[in-house]
Amino acid sequence: MNTYGNGRKFNQCVTSNVEALLATLTDKSVTSSVYRETMFEIGKFMGQELSKKLDPNKSYCVASTVEDADFLSKGIIESIKENAFSVYLVCFWNDRINLNGTSVAPIYNKYHDNGFESSDSLIVVKSIISGSCVVKTNITALIESVKPEKIFVLAPVMHKDSAVKLEKEFPIQITSLFNYFTLATDEHRDCKGEVLPGIGGSVYERLGFSGQADKNSYIPKIVHERMFA
Amino acid sequence: MTCVESLPPLEDFVIENLGAARLANLNNQSKGGDNNSKGNKHETFFATYKLAEMYVAHPEDDVEISSQEKAFVDDLIIRNFTKNSKQNYQLKDAKAVYWQKSKGISPYFRDQYKIDVEYFKVKDSKTILVLAQENVYKQRSKDIPNSIEHHTECVLFKNSESANKMLLDNQSFKNAVEKFCAYPKDTDKLEIVLRNLVGAWTTHNKETRKVSEFISLAKESANPNFFIDSNTNYSISSELRLILDNIDELSYTIKNGYLNYDIKSLSGIVRFKVNTPDFDELSKAIIEKEPKDIMTLLGFLMGSRG
Q: Do A11 and A183 contact (CB within 8 A), yes or no?
């Protein structure tokens, strides 16, 4: 990985085009539609890279948050579907709540493709992994019904400490399945704890949602299509 | 068991029956304790586990729980006044734990038993060593000294860095918390119930309280509240029911006061209970709009705020 002055390290697979996409995310002047399209393009790239590690005879379950489903996760699914026996989607609507000083992310709504329990491996997607609370919750929910061979944890940006935090939440028999794939690792946070440069602020607002309540009442197109296919 | 208030000072009993040196040990014991983060987590998770377990096992009994008493075995003390029994727990997340070597814990267990039986007049006193490390547990289980064997046992209770990991790692612990949770198969909800129980314990563990009081405190402060609700008298209005019944493929149920819904492979929970003003407001909005299709209805149900 190369280190830059802003505390960011890029994964070796990151090309100048992908660097430009990540720079678009941190550019606060771009519109939400550009931001969404950029997330989709980043998803496609990450899916292409991930495909190199996938077995075309195996089934994969992509686990997405509601806010990422139509953009980052959709890009990943489009890239990997030709390189897998089948790709299932599970989508979570999490609330982020502070409880006695700790973040929790209860799931209030969940969509799953029929048959997702038979997946051989999980691909857990999040636009940024900082405290790892949401990713922890969603992996935990999935391993109650899926017995994965591998758990791919994908995020365009991760904070440098997030993997350690995530691994504190699971027994070793689960953490030994983790395969991380990120494009950039950031080491700085602002006074509110937001990762810098991260993905340019709160992903809800950047994607065009007015906040948590708004994103939680949204049904992604990818979910709608699958529900009524 | 005799109430503590009616007894002469414990210090008098110790000095007369065990000697001045042991009184000094007792006083030091009360000041000591494992104050590091690892030890605190171990004690907190174990206390929470026992809280949950005792409440479920003996719901009608008068049971007190404490971690602050002056005692030789003092990390956690549970007194069942109904059964006149007492359990004294010493917790260790360390490799060097011995019964009889220098700083061995056997004398503490011996004297605690004597205090329980002769001072507190307890009929059934147990001294229990709770170990976090399996190899230490195996060794100390084998060599409990004969002199304390009849009232002593070892228990394995592994430590955990997080609530989620504890639930995934320790099935007995998970089973105990499940008894309180309206969604026992959902670890995200279980974790919240566990954190509520932990919160009640860590906030009030300087006080000796009834087990039932700790549980009540946890329930009262729960938001979101996933504790099992004893009230089964929840219902929705006939107008709202008619709208829900007319949506194709929607199924719904009121579980623990919450409206749960399923449509195809999407399932969800409205964030507030049906007998609350927030739910009334949501219900009114749905009745006014009278949605005929699932997507419009889901916009209301999923967007509900707690």
A: yes
The answer to whether residues A76 and A62 touch, using CB atoms and an 8 Å cutoff, is yes
Q: What percent of chain A has pLDDT over 90?
A: 89
Per-residue model confidence as pLDDT tens digits over A158-193: 999 999 999 999 999 999 999 999 999 999 999 888
Q: B226: which chain A residues are within 8 Å (Cβ-Cβ)?
A: 106
Secondary structure in 3-state letters for chain A:
CEECCCCEEECCCCCHHHHHHHHHHHCCCCCHHHHHHHHHHHHHHHHHHHHCCCCCCCEEEEEEEHHHHHHHHHHHHHHHHHHCCEEEEEEEEECCEEECCEEECCEEEEEECCCHHHCCEEEEECCEECCCHHHHHHHHHHHCCCCCCEEEEEEEEEECCHHHHHHCCCCHHHHCCEEEEEEEEECEECCCCCEECCCCCCHHHHCCCCCHHHHHCCCCHHHHHHHCC
Residues listed for chain B: 306
Q: What residue ranges do the domains of chain A occupy?
A: 2-227
Q: Which residues of A touch B168 (CB under 8 A)?
A: 140, 170-171, 174
Check residue B17 and give its pLDDT.
Answer: 85
Sign, CA dihedral A180-A182-A184-A188, equals negative
Calpha distance B106→B144 (Å, rounded): 8
Tell me if residue B52 falls in helix, strand or coil: helix
The count of CB pairs under 8 A between chains A and B is 93
Output the average pLDDT for chain B: 91
B161 vs A102: CB contact, 8 Å cut-off? no
In DSSP terms, B259 is beta-bridged to B254
- Dihedral of CA atoms B203, B208, B214, B218 in degrees, nearest 10, equals -10
A222 contact residues in B (CB cutoff 8 A): none
Beta strands A195-196 and B250-255, pairing class = unpaired
Choose among B188, B266, B267: nearest Cβ to A137: B188
Burial B14-25 (b: 16+ CB within 10 A, else e): bbeebeeebbeb
Given this structure, which CATH class describes domain A2-227? Answer: alpha beta
Please judge whether B186 and A114 are an interchain contact, meaning their C-beta atoms are less than 8 angstroms apart: no
In which band, very low, low, confident or very high, does the pLDDT at B30 lie, cut at 50, 70 and 90?
A: low
pTM score of the predicted model: 0.92
Per the CB < 8 Å rule, is B269 touching A108? yes
Query: Cβ(A183)–Cβ(A46) under 8 Å?
Result: yes
Please answer whether residues A124 and A95 qualify as being in contact, where contact means their C-beta atoms are separated by less than 8 angstroms: no
